[in-house]
TrEMBL record:
Domain ELMO: from-to ranges: 7-166
Name of the protein in question: ELMD3 protein
InterPro entries on file: ELMO_dom, ELMO_domain-containing
Pfam families assigned to the protein according to its UniProt record, in alphabetical order: ELMO_CED12
C-alpha cells in the first residue's frame, strides 16, 4: 500500500464500509482494521505475500452486486464468537489474502490456462476462482463447524481443489449465483412496464475500468 496514493485509501474505505455497513470513514491506521480480520493496525502488512491483488480481490468481492451478499455472509460468519474453545471465528481479511495466494499460485503453475484461454480472460478467472474458493470455505466452515485450529488444513484442501479441480469450484459458484439470482428475482416486485431502465451490472472485467474513473469507490 502506498500512503501517497489516494485511491489506495479509498479502496480500503470502500471494503470497510461495504462489509461493516458503516457510513463513517476510518483512519489509515488503527485497531478498526482488526475488525475486518487484518492482523494489526496496518492492513498493508498482511498484503506482502500478494501485493495489491490481495486488496483488489477483496474489493471485487464487495463491489460485484452478485458477490456482495456472499461476502457479507462470510464476514458475518467470521465474526461469530462462541464460548467454544478453540474459537469458531476466523480473520476474514487474512483468510481472503490466503485465498488470493492460492489462486495466484494456481495461475503460476498453469493450472488455470485452459479456463483462461477458453474465456480469453485472466483477471475474471482469478476473481471467480477466488470467490468460488471462499464460497467453499464458507460452506465447509459453517456446515462442519470448523474452528480456527482447522484453518491450515482447510486452506490446504482449498489449494488442492484450486489446482486439481478449478472447473468444479467454478461450477459451484455458477450454481450459487444462479440460485441467489432466482431467489432475489422472486422477492422483487415487478418493474413498471415501459420504464426502459437497464440494469447496470458491473462484472469482474469492468472493475479496472470503474477504478480508473474513480467512480464506484466510496
Amino acid at each position: 500500500l502506498d500512503d501517497n496514493e489516494r485511491v489506495h485509501m479509498r479502496i480500503l474505505q470502500t471494503i470497510y464500509k461495504k462489509l461493516t455497513r458503516s457510513r463513517l470513514g476510518c483512519p489509515r491506521y488503527g485497531a478498526h482494521w482488526e475488525e475486518l480480520g487484518f492482523q494489526g493496525a496496518d492492513p498493508g502488512t498482511d498484503l506482502r505475500g500478494t501485493g495489491m491483488l490481495g486488496l483488489m480481490q477483496m474489493l471485487f468481492f464487495v463491489m460485484d452486486s452478485q458477490m456482495l451478499p456472499l461476502a457479507r455472509e462470510i464476514f458475518r460468519l467470521s465474526q461469530h464468537e462462541t464460548q467454544a474453545r478453540p474459537p469458531a471465528n476466523f480473520p476474514f481479511s487474512v483468510m481472503s489474502v490466503n485465498i488470493t495466494r492460492i489462486v495466484l499460485q494456481a495461475l503460476r503453475e498453469e493450472r488455470l490456462s485452459r479456463e483462461c484461454n477458453r474465456r480469453r480472460q485472466v483477471v475474471a478467472v482469478l476473481n471467480d476462482l477466488y470467490a468460488a474458493a471462499f464460497l467453499r470455505l464458507y460452506r465447509v466452515w459453517k456446515g462442519q463447524r470448523k474452528t480456527v485450529v482447522d484453518s491450515d488444513s482447510l486452506l490446504k484442501e482449498l489449494e488442492l481443489s484450486a489446482k486439481k479441480k478449478p472447473k468444479q469450484l467454478l461450477k459451484s459458484l455458477e450454481a450459487y449465483v444462479s440460485q441467489s439470482s432466482a431467489a432475489h428475482a422472486l422477492r422483487q416486485p415487478p418493474a413498471p412496464s415501459g420504464s426502459g431502465e437497464e440494469i447496470d451490472f458491473m462484472g469482474v472485467c469492468d472493475l479496472q475500468v470503474e477504478l480508473e474513473g474513480d467512480a464506484r469507490l466510496i
